[in-house]
Structures are given as structure tokens and as C-alpha cells.
């Protein structure tokens, strides 16, 4: 009998075919490709700041309607759900506009610049009776379900430590999204959200946060080393940086064994289970041709939640979305304070 269970997947054809309105043309390019290639979800409208790029995006993906403004897109009666895929500082205003128009909303990570803004967005969605979720696509991957099953079964025993890293070599450019404070720059908001969210999924919210890091000339953080500890005593050691390429792996250590999430841990990759009795088993996810095709899983899950009448994702609930941003807020504060 295998040590690693098979993932429990949602049949993409078994959920409603929602009509998606897209705001932004950056990561949205990979998202729309993924949902059109691997799901019944369809992007039917788009808007973004650059009209020429937006028209080209629409032609590339077979999107019929290009709206001149966010207001026009969220008012479109043929749009069921709005996907917000713009720079972080724009998320709050655009998400609130979609919610006010009665649309369900999937918002790219981080959902907002601060935990307070995240809570405002999520509370507005609940009050309006629409589903609002952060696009933490890692939670919906097959390997994420395998990990949940292993923890539900107690395979690793009592969890003691989580480790995760995400580093990328990013050349400094003060005008780029990565380094411009006005565009939500910084390693923690771009890469660090993945490592903090992963730790949260395993050990929950931290009671203690300690961090050191460095600042770019523009004042945004460009690296962070983070130690977290929960009230129960579980710990996490996390690193992110714009200054080097790191393995982009994650590991969980428990009293009965160890679980490695293979690189890149944030996308479809695989897991290695090493038990204390010496048993080792590896499972790899090679079902999709490209890493970012895995964005399709969250769209299928989102549609299933809409069908069930849910107002938040059971796999990434509102309180956890806010908690992750509270951790990021504190890490950024500590690094800025030196």
C-alpha cells in the first residue's frame, strides 16, 4: 500500500462554467491561458490601462469584449466573476468596485497591501453575499490535497518545524513593480507571501514573529529571514530574497517523519515523504505541460464554491488570509525599523 495518497481532484466539467471579467494583463495572461486550456471557465471581458496591450490580450485569448474602464467591466451583466490581477495597491479599490456591483471576486496575492485593507475587502464581500477569495493557487494544487490528507492521517506525527524559501535574482530598477513603493514593491509582498502562506497552512498563525532583512535604495524590503513560533511551540524558518536564486523548496518536520515539497513548491511539482523508520516514497505531478497551467485548479475550485453558495474558500478562509498579511505587515515593519 502506498504511503502517499492520491489527490482528490474536482472534475473541471462538474462545476458551473462561469463568465470571468479580467482586470489586468500581466499574470492574467497565464491565468486565462490555463483556464481556457484545462477548464470550462471562460474569460469574456477584459480591461487594463494600456489599450493596445489590452486589445492584443483579448485577441490572443479570444475575449470578445474590451472595456474602457474597471467601472464598465464590473457593470457588465454578462460577467459572473471578476479576476483582479493588477499591482497590489490597486486591489482594494478594484475589488470593492466589483463587490459593490454584485460580482464574485478572485484577487491576486497578496489580496491587499495590508491586513486592514484585506479585512475591509473580505467583510464587504460577506456583507454583499458574494464569494471573495485570494488567488493563492498553491492551496488548490493536487499536491496540496495530498499534504492535507497526510496531516489528517497523522502521518508525520506532531509537527515541529516548517522550512520554506523563495529567492529570485531581480536586477534593481527603481521604476519596476518589484522595487517601486507606489506599485507595492518588495520581496515580502511578491515572493514572501508564498512562504508565509505555506507555513500558515501547516502550523497556523504565529504568536511570535522575528525577522531581519535588507532594504533596497527605494526603501522596500529586498530580502527577509523570518522565524515564527506558534503558541503550541511549532516553528517556521522562512527566507525570501531578490538577491539570489534559491532552491524554492519547502519541508515539514514532524515526530514521525519529514515531508519535502519539491521545487518549485508554489506550483505543481511533487512531494517526498521520509518516515522515521526509513521508508521513503516520492510522488511527482507531471499532469500539466507548464507550471502555471496549475492556475486552472483554483478557477475550478472557485466555481465549485460559487455553486455551493460559499462566501469564502474552505481551503483558504478569510481569517487566514488576514492572518498571513498580519505576519507580512509585522515582518515589513521589523525590517524597516532595522
From TrEMBL:
Domain Gfo/Idh/MocA-like oxidoreductase N-terminal: residue ranges: 18-133
Domain of life: Bacteria
GFO/IDH/MocA-like oxidoreductase domain ranges (all copies): 147-259
A molecular function (GO) term: nucleotide binding
This protein's record includes keyword tRNA-binding: no
Record carries keyword Oxidoreductase: yes
InterPro entries named among the record's database cross-references: Gfo/Idh/MocA-like_OxRdtase_N, Gfo/Idh/MocA_domain, GFO_IDH_MocA-like_dom, NAD(P)-bd_dom_sf
Gene3D superfamilies cross-referenced by the UniProt entry: Dihydrodipicolinate Reductase, domain 2, NAD(P)-binding Rossmann-like Domain
Keyword annotations from UniProtKB, A to Z: NAD, Oxidoreductase
One Pfam family in the UniProt entry: GFO_IDH_MocA
Family label: Belongs to the Gfo/Idh/MocA family.
Name of the protein in question: Gfo/Idh/MocA family oxidoreductase
Organism: Microbacterium oleivorans
